[in-house]
Amino acid sequence: MSGAVDLAAVKARNEAAARAAEAPAPGQYVLDVTEANFQPEVLDRSFQVPVLLALTSARAPSSAELVTTLELIVTATNGGVVLGKVDVDVNPRIAQALQAQAVPAVFAVIGGQVVPGFQGALPEPQVREFVDAVLQAATEAGLPGAGAAPADAPDEPVAAEAPEDPRFTAAEEALEAGDYALATQRYQAILDQEPANQEASLALGQVRLMQRLESIDADAAQRADSAPDDVDAQLAAADLSLAGNDVPGALDRLLKTITRVRGDDRDRVRQRLLEYFDLLGPDDPRVPTARRELTRALF
Predict the structure, then answer these.
(1) How far is it, in rounded angstroms, from Cα 55 to Cα 109?
(2) Cβ–Cβ under 8 Å, residues 211 and 180
(3) CA-CA-CA-CA torsion for 66, 69, 71, 73, nearest 10 degrees?
(4) The last residue of a domain, from among 95, 114, 140
(5) Which residues contact 188 (CB under 8 A, 6 or more apart)?
(6) 101 and 166 share a domain?
(7) Domain end marker among 81, 116, 140
(8) How far apart are CA 258 and CA 246, in angstroms?
(9) What is the 3-state secondary structure (H, E, C) of 208-221?
(10) pLDDT tens digits for 10-37?
(11) Number of structural domains, the chain?
(12) In a shared domain, residues 235 and 170
């Protein structure tokens, strides 16, 4: 990780993200889930946005009341969460797989991880409280669609055009000169103007990693191993592993650390994991698994 940031790699990952963004998006936030579409509509989608599953039955009169409440709350999130309605009389294997004990019942799926919710038709304030908790967990786990903007929001600038931007040129010049502080300042200035600029965000993450590595010595991992509750030591050792291309080691260290710490320390580790997810990019097969582990630790 010495030298300049690999902006070509940043661009490649950004183009992959752009292709995903251009893919046909669901036009509704409430859908019928069946055994046939469970994989794409629930599991796959849950890596982008949290999915609520409402298990219903015509034999359970309170099902209709619960679905009505959920539809109102989910629609109000404007795409921040998706509701999947499952008729268990038609799709019994879904209920069996979820080990549902009664109907109606609600589950959440975040990053492929199923989280039990509640049974019965709760009052709207309690249902809303559960949905808020799901949204919070999804946001903390770094799901890109959690709390999404309206579906008809204007498109973000195409990231592939960013390198022609003089602001990027100035940032890259600072980077090539080895002035990490100035490069950080210039990339951050772009993000201050365009918070959703993916290329600036990815480049900034790499510059910050390189800047941190300047103060980390080769004994960081040994110190971290001898002090598992020392968050600073764990973060430094994880950075060193990532820089050495030991991605599994870096992710595993932080995922284990986040289960041992609380409060501000837990948030620092969470933020570093989210930074790693961004650096690795959406196509890295190790990211979904790590996201699931993070969700499990946080929820």
Answers:
(1) 13
(2) yes
(3) -140
(4) 140
(5) 204
(6) no
(7) 140
(8) 19
(9) HHHHHHCCCCCCHH
(10) 444 444 444 334 433 444 789 999 999 9
(11) 2
(12) yes
Q: What gap in Å lies between CA 80 and CA 75, rounded to an integer?
A: 9
Structure tokens at 238: 């994880």
Neighbours of 220 (CB within 10 A): 21
The SS3 assignment for 157 reads coil
| The residue count for the chain | 299
Given a contact cutoff of 8 angstroms between Cβ atoms, the answer to whether 151 and 27 are in contact is: yes
Q: By C-alpha distance, which of 73, 135, 60 is closest to 100?
A: 60
Amino acid at 183: A
- Rounding to the nearest 10 degrees, give the CA dihedral for residues 217, 222, 228, 234: 30
Tokens of 162: 């960013």
Q: What is the pLDDT of residues 199-250, one digit of tens each?
A: 888 889 889 998 898 888 888 889 999 999 999 999 999 999 988 888 999 9
Instruction: Please count the helices (runs of H) and the strands (runs of E) in the chain.
Output: 13, 5
Same domain, 282 and 165: yes
- Do 114 and 202 belong to one domain? no
State the pTM of this model: 0.55
Q: What is the Cα–Cα distance from 24 to 286, expressed in whole angstroms?
A: 25
